[in-house]
Amino acid sequence: MIRALALFVLFCGTPAGAERIVLGLSQDEVAITATFDGSSILIFGAVSRDAPIPQASDLDVIITVTGPPGPVDVRRKAREVGIWVNVDAVRLSRAPSFYAVASTAPVTDILSAVEDLRHRITLDQVVRTVGASETAPDVENFTDALVRIRAAENLYQIREGAVSLDQQTLFRTAIELPANLVEGAYRTRIFLLRERQIIDTFETEIDVRKVGLERWLYTLAHRQPLTYGLISLALAIVAGWGASAVFRGLQR
Amino acid sequence: MQIYLPIAEVAVNAFLLLGLGGIVGILSGMFGVGGGFLMTPLLFFIGIPPAVAVATGANQIVASSFSAVLAHFKRKTVDLRMGGVLLAGGLVGAAFGVQVFAALKARGQVDLLVTLFYVVFLGAVGGLMFLESLRSLRRARKPGGTLPPRRKHGWIHALPLKMKFRTSGMYLSVIPPLVIGAGVGVLSAIMGVGGGFIMVPAMIYLLGMPTKVVIGTSLFQIIFVTAFSTLMHAMTTQSVDIVLAVILILGGVTGAQFGSRLGTNLKAEQLRILLASLVLLVCGKLALDLLLRPAELYSIGAAT
User: Fold this and answer.
1) CB–CB of A35 and B1 under 8 A?
2) What is this structure's pTM?
3) A149 and A59 together in one domain
4) Is residue B229 less than 8 Å (CB to CB) from chain A?
5) How far is B55 from chain A (nearest CA, A)?
6) How far is CA B195 from the centre of its chain?
């Protein structure tokens, strides 16, 4: 079907010699349900062109997925009076909650520094725009820690070579979303590159939301905290009392 | 089976949570304690954010104490008047504790505060309990040994604002129970515990209450104070996770049934030494976290 789509696009009129992206997503929505345990999103697409495939250079693809940015505090412990306590803190006002960059080859080989600076593709560039407060002399250590900790939690991913490209036309990759996701619109960007220059970009969004009971409870907890608190208490009493009543019944 | 907790926003294995609730339930059934002081640190260890662990822990204690207090009401071993005075202090303490908790959460020091509280209180209570049970074990071996006489009248009885507590058969100033109640209220809000492990010894040794009404009365106070803490946490920090609470409660109540049967097969002194060692173990683990250089010096917290 993808091939058919690609062929269809091939016959459509696009500017002479231009290569364009036609995209498909396995799903444009991720639902966080009670049994949500991470998700894998298939991002695939085709390159449409109305001229023969240029042979002079290789085609490369970079795909990025950015979770909703939010403010976080990165704190550093130091030893004081014999115990380790949080001493310094740096506020990062726009740290993405998730960032994945997948590419057909090592990004530095296929992307020029200027293009990276313009589109902020690599993690180094993304981290530069997190809006760090200058409350510590060594802010870089804090942004490095952000990347290190989130990479360990699989929230920041660098997947070089994870995009497969068939016949210079069809590309696909799978992005693994971990279980501890933040809700919101996940901005998905696709870059088409030749000779380290970006020749086309495509942008779309993947919507990640809690659904069903999860949605209801979360909304209730934040919109009507008193009702939510009372429900928690009622449920605790019913569950505690009910379970012991069941056991008393069993003993008889 | 992984389950996604809507407020904690993490996915945890449901059976791990059930097992955790069950083990703490077994211990609480065996030793007749609420088990909050074990539950909350264990929740930290499996990766539940401390704020959620503390708030949800308070909710879970409401459940585990409720059926116990009903049984005590039936046996008429609850001193309602004393419970009321302790509760009045407790509510003030809990309200204050929640404010301190919220203020320190904003400054990124809440983990430190909670850990310090745990180390100090678990260390003190565990140590005292351990020494005390060692002493009574030694006494039990030496025949002819007598219990040291208990002091009946101290400075506590010289305080003003006296009140009659008929069920306990005491005529006592309301100041000491108010202060004890308030202290336990602060602990409940900051540590996510019921505070029975502090209140019961305080009631016996400081107030000189008859042992048979102590447990019921402390449970009575604990239910209302933890319920109040739960509501306050739900309203100020939105950190009560209802799904987490229900799973822990189911595991806990089941475990408690088995625990109480196990407990009857062991001698009181052995039980107390076991509990004391357990308390000291958790205390030691938390103390090491403070004293040893952490593997990762940096941490990420939600900006407030």
Assistant:
1) yes
2) 0.75
3) yes
4) no
5) 11
6) 3
